Amino acid sequence: MLDWKGLLKWSLSNTDGTQKKDIKPMEEKTKQWLQEALADYALQDIKVIQEILQELAKEELNNNDDEEKRINLLERLEDILDSLDMADSLYQIGGLVQMIKLAQTSMYPKVQCLCFSIFITCNQNNSYVQQWSIYEGAFNFINTILNSKNIKVKEMALSALSSLCRGENLQSKRDFIDIDGVEFLVKIINEKESFSQRMKNKAFLFLKDLVFYDDRLHFTYNNLDAFANTNAKVTKTLNNESVKVNNQSKNNDITFDQNQELKKQNEDPKNKKYRNIVKNKLIQMNFIQIHINLLHDFSDIEQDNRVNYLDILKNVVIFSNEIKQLIKETKKDALKKNMLDVMKLDQQDKGSNDFEIQLYKEILNEIQ
């Protein structure tokens, strides 16, 4: 068990919160004790998680007591995962696979929603967990969205699907596109009678994210900062001038980059087809023309969607001369009028429409 009293005593003895003390390196013995205490704490949580998963694996009994028990177990699991970064551990002990299964098959909607919530916590901006979740069949959440009779379950399933693909994991976006994910999001936006307003909002946001990364979808890595020149470092001369000095004394080529080969691999030929694929799909589906009337709806409920649509429109206009010309010839005056109307709203709402106005200006500037 973790020695909480000992940890508290050590913490209090090393700071009084009022006086500045000389900071000294932690003694090796103290460091080792602290590491062991934290490791023991994490191990205890793993054991608790395993016990929870064992209980959840039992057959559902279709009664209120069983439902309440499972809800309590999942809430406890969620608390543990929220307090510690244990997404990878949950996957490694089979818990994430269990969440994927329960989210789709449980007879209790509240249990399904909690499983989706835990799934989202684990997948958000975690490319390792995202890819394994896809491998374990998480894209089947689409079937839950299409077939569930519970609107809250449908909404949570869409949020879970979004958590798989949002962020800098370009491979997950490509995988989603391969299963006609763009078409699926457009379906949600188009079919108002089948999906809730919240789902429409989520679909617009998801689609905007795909468009944002669209011109980089052929890359292996979205961010090349990790592959900066690792063989050279910056130092100061006596004259305080910054110069590069090679880390390897045997190599005098300070421009050498030991990750150059990895950089070359960043544009994999097999991924070339994905570059700008989302914008091309939207153009083929006439998405821009079909939904431009959304800009005439000034209700608060559609404000986020107006902004997301404008963001998508801006990127498509920059990409396609054909769409640019079409918007210029048929919608330029309407866009100007809409912008003026939004400016009036902005004065009433004290700046809540600033970003929307900025997007209008950028689009109008682009089609001049």
Automatic annotation (TrEMBL):
- This protein's UniProt keywords: Coiled coil, Repeat
Q: What's one Pfam family here?
A: Fes1
What would be an example GO MF term here? Answer: adenyl-nucleotide exchange factor activity
Q: Quick check: keyword Repeat in the entry?
A: yes
Positions in coiled-coil regions = 49-77
Domain Nucleotide exchange factor Fes1 stretches: 5-90
Q: Please tell me one Gene Ontology term that the record gives under cellular component.
A: endoplasmic reticulum
Alphabetical list of InterPro entries matching this protein: ARM-like, ARM-type_fold, Hsp70_NEF-Inhibitors, Nucleotide_exch_fac_Fes1
This chain belongs to the protein called Nucleotide exchange factor Fes1 domain-containing protein
What's the source species for this entry?
Ichthyophthirius multifiliis
